[in-house]
Amino acid sequence: MAVSQPSNQVNVWKKPMRVKRVKKWGLLRSLDVFHAFFKKKKEVADLMLISINIHESTGHLLSCPLRFLVRVDDTVFTVIQTALRSYARQGRLPVLGNNSDDFFLYCANSDFIALSPVVPIGRTGGRNFLLYKKK
Predict the structure, then answer these.
(1) CA–CA separation, 20 vs 3, rounded Å?
(2) Residue limits of the DUF7054 domain (predicted)?
């Protein structure tokens, strides 16, 4: 038999219809600023997962390639910098250095032609790349 509540009692299990948000200079405020910024721009970052094999690398965990997310409009130069930073953080051997001008990036799926450093990575048409050090 179900027990009904009198109409003058408040149901404690129901959440209030509207919660008033107090904006403070903390996490809540920063999240509001973050959401307001992206709602104004109405942009969604187009990301792609790429993998980069490094020439003459002994590697780490059986020479697996570097994998990370990049934006589609990032340049090849930026991708090389990110790959070198990721390679150094993982402690892979041999040590390559951090000068990204000393490296070429090739698309593994197309002709063996070095990519221009100013071309966006999304326009290359591939997701698998090779990183070679200049001689």
Answers:
(1) 33
(2) 48-131
Confidence label for 35 from pLDDT (cuts 50, 70 and 90): low
Neighbours of 106 (CB within 10 A): 21
CATH class belonging to 47-133? alpha beta
The closest of 106, 117, 128, 121 to 77, measured between CA atoms, is: 117
Residue 71 is encoded by which pair of tokens?
């934006």
| CA distances in angstroms from 4 to 1, 15, 19, 65, listed in the order given | 10, 19, 27, 64
Q: Determine the Cα–Cα distance for residues 130 and 111; give it in Å rounded to an integer.
A: 12
Beta-carbon contacts of 121 under 8 Å, excluding residues fewer than 6 positions away, are: 48, 50, 70, 72, 74, 75, 76, 78, 79
Contact between residue 133 and residue 55 where contact means Cβ atoms under 8 Å apart: yes
For residue 61, give both structure tokens: 């965990």
- Domain parsing of the chain, residue ranges: 47-133
